[in-house]
Amino acid sequence: KYSKSLGKFNVTGIFHEDIDGIGNTQSSFAVPQPLTRRATLHVNRNFGKLAIELGGIWGGQPLNGRDIQIAREAADGSYNVYQDQLGTEDNWGGKVKFTWKGKKINWYGQSAVMGLVANGGADLTKTFTGWRLKDSGSGNQYNALTGFTYSVGKLQIAPNFLWQKPIEGPIPFDVPAPARPRNILDDPFVVRVNREQVAGEILLTYDPTPGSWMYEWDNDRTEDAKFAISAGFVYRHLPTIQDAAIGILADGRSLFAFPGSAPAQDLWEVNARLVSKINSNFGIIANLYGGTAQANGSDVRTIHRYGAELRMVYKTVKLNSFVRINDWGPFDYHRDFNLTFPVQWMFDISNTIGKPDWFALPATRIGFQTNWRSLNKYSPRYAPTTKVDSNGNFVPDPDAIGFDNGNEWEIRTYVQFSIGN
Fold it and tell me: Angle CA(394)–CA(396)–CA(397) in degrees, nearest 5?
């Protein structure tokens, strides 16, 4: 990485080279990506209240020459799939961003065109506030985003909008062989986070102490308001499917591609975060959410999930609890295979030597925790009765009629020691 100021322009260049792959993984959130090489250039300049940023990328060159599948929809709704090869024109991408800062109103607008394998990585930039709609940083897409914030006293109102569309769309699961849905293990690019969508959100923030910004990464620690809240609503119009995701088999190591993806489905979600630091010894943080969501894998069921999390610190005592309704379990394979629990509940209380930290860091403490969850036919390990399969073996029958939900529970006490605390 190299940065330099040239007059009124700030210029930064980065070169990135993958040396080796990640190898095996035990989490579908860390599936190995194709080895790549990329170079990026960023230029920005301020014109008073207006700032302009330009970015360019050249990436994915080691993938050039690999075979790719291209789908074209016919007039009757069927698909014709053709074979092509990646070329140098698929390595390039560019982005432009404008930001304007005023007293009460801030505005930004940005757009990008990214070649099929011009993957730049996720954009974690926070522009003005804590919006959830962002540029995914993926290749194979066009996108445009715009939003503004308007401040009324201590309240900030912030609508935001996203449009994105892949250059080459996904391949349906029912196309005739040898065509198939793409997956990142066998193909140089896929349609996943760059899925076609038109989305909008509205974010409301009440923060009477802006010196401890609500959306800073360590705000759990630094927020000093007696009451602050952010609440948002996101709606996504998703008119198409995706390419196949990668899952992990029961052995915990073997990767496989799902046969397809969840169907086209509009999704919505509401989120809220409340922080109350009554004094230096007593504070409460709560997170609430609800909405619709889809599995990472190919299951067609759309879930309606809701939940709340509560954390509280009082002197040396720390409480942590959550309740989740019709939501996935804690591990990645739960969302991959769309495994949900009707109710999940956890309660943890501990006493710490010294002041507890809002983050889950090592500490010397003694505590008590209980977990409880109910199970139905969409849950793992639900076995209200058994049936005989085609091989003559007795196996669980989660679809049997007339049985109540199952349940699992756990109670534990624990003692933790931290040499540094």
Answer: 110
Q: Which pTM does this prediction carry?
A: 0.93
Distance CA 183, CA 330 (A): 25
Question: CB neighbours (10 Å) of residue 137?
Answer: 21
Reference 240, options 294, 291, 179; nearest CA is 294
The greatest distance separating any two alpha carbons of the chain, rounded to the nearest whole angstrom, comes to 79
Q: Which residue has the tokens 């997956």?
A: 183
Please answer whether residues 118 and 60 qualify as being in contact, where contact means their C-beta atoms are separated by less than 8 angstroms: yes
Q: How far is CA 114 from CA 137, 188, 204, 370, in A?
A: 9, 14, 32, 48
The phi and psi torsions of 406 (rounded to 5 degrees) equal: -85, 180
C-alpha dist (Å) from residue 332 to 249, 345, 380: 12, 18, 13
Cis check: omega of the bond before 34, within 30 degrees of 0: no
- Residue spans of the domains in the chain: they are 94-416
Could you report how far apart the first and last alpha carbons of the chain are, in Å? Answer: 37
Counting Cβ atoms within 10 Å, is residue 143 exposed (0-12), middle (13-18) or buried (19+)?
buried
Taking a C-beta distance cutoff of 8 angstroms, is the pair 229, 208 a contact?
no
pLDDT at position 295: 97
> What mean pLDDT is reported for the chain?
94
Residue 203 to residue 292: CA distance in whole angstroms: 18
The total of other beta-carbon atoms located within 10 Å of residue 38's CB is: 23
- What digits encode the pLDDT tens for the residues 374-397? 999 999 999 999 999 889 999 989
The Cα 73–Cα 136 span in angstroms is: 26
**If you search the block for the tokens 């038109």, which residue do you land on?**
198
DSSP letter assigned to residue 333:
H
Q: What is the DSSP letter of 239?
A: -
Q: How far apart are CA 238 and CA 169, in angstroms?
A: 13
β 228-237/394-396 pair status: unpaired
Q: How far apart are CA 118 and CA 228, in angstroms?
A: 40
